[in-house]
Amino acid sequence: MIRDMTCEMNGGRRPGVRRTAYGLAFTLICGMCSTAPVSAGTSTPGSPPNPAAPVLFTLEARSSASHSNLRGNWIRRTFDLKVQVRGEGTEATTIIGIGRSGAGLKLLTPVARGPYVLQPGKIVTFKLGYEITKCSDVQEGEWSVPIHVRSDDGDTIVYSPLRLFNVGTRGPVDLPWQTALANQVC
Q1: How far is 179 from 186, CA to CA, in rounded Å?
Q2: 133 partner at 20 to 30 Å CA-CA among 3, 8, 24, 159?
Q3: C-alpha span between 98 and 88 (Å, rounded)
Q4: What is the domain class of 57-179 according to CATH?
Q5: By C-alpha distance, which of 100, 110, 97, 103 is closest to 132?
Q6: Cα angle for residues 134, 42, 32 (degrees, 5° grid)
Q7: How far apart are CA 43 and CA 22, in angstroms?
Q8: Which superkingdom, per the lineage (predicted)?
Q9: Lowest-confidence region among 46-50, 70-74, 146-150, 152-156
Q10: Is the dihedral of CA 162, 166, 171, 173 positive or negative?
Q11: What is the domain partition of the chain in residue ranges?
Q12: Can you name the residues that pair with 145 across neighbouring β-strands?
């Protein structure tokens, strides 16, 4: 495949050894340049988090509340949770927001919440409120929480898994956080 690419770059001519080396170097450099720069632990909003990236935050929710209110013929289902964000990096991080809406879930609290400067090893708590727009649409499986971070290079989104704890037993919940909380009111 590299040989075919090198031939295309040279107008269909079969390159010599020297031209092959230049072609390979060109292909390698172009491949490196075409990759969008991504900070450690970040990804675009539609893509999953980078599993090989170092952990910048640990998220835990140790308290939550769910509500189901009948309004005429319509039931409004909501839940709130307090998310503790612990800085796991080696430098202070400026958090400018947290959370997102998704399938079956509408984020009620604003994404922009800050800025907060989080020192390594310290914790900041955010309250996230969600309305369940359709119970059957709620995301199944791990659904990481986006943390909007500001740095000298600009704003970035870091995705971190959220670990939900059972209030009664104080142990971790086996289900993904959004599934466990939606199940309480659906």
Answers
A1: 10
A2: 159
A3: 16
A4: mainly beta
A5: 103
A6: 130
A7: 32
A8: Bacteria
A9: 46-50
A10: negative
A11: 57-179
A12: 160
Token pair of 145, please? 């929480």
Q: What are phi and psi of 164, to 5 degrees?
A: -100, 135
**Six-digit token pair at 75?**
């039931």
Spatial CA neighbour of 114 closest among 163, 82, 92, 147: 147
Alpha helices by DSSP H, the chain: 2-9, 17-34, 177-185
pLDDT above 90: residue 94: yes
Give whole-number Cα distances, 36 to 39, 53, 182, in Å. Answer: 10, 15, 36
User: Which residues is 61 bridged to in the sheet?
Assistant: 83, 164
- What is the C-alpha to C-alpha distance for residues 132 and 181, in angstroms, rounded to an integer? 10
Q: Residue 13 — very low, low, confident or very high, per pLDDT cuts 50/70/90?
A: very low
Side by side, the strands of the sheet bearing 145-151 are 112-118, 93-98, 145-151, 154-160
Q: Retrieve residue 107's tokens.
A: 């984020």
Residue 176 has pLDDT above 60, yes or no: yes
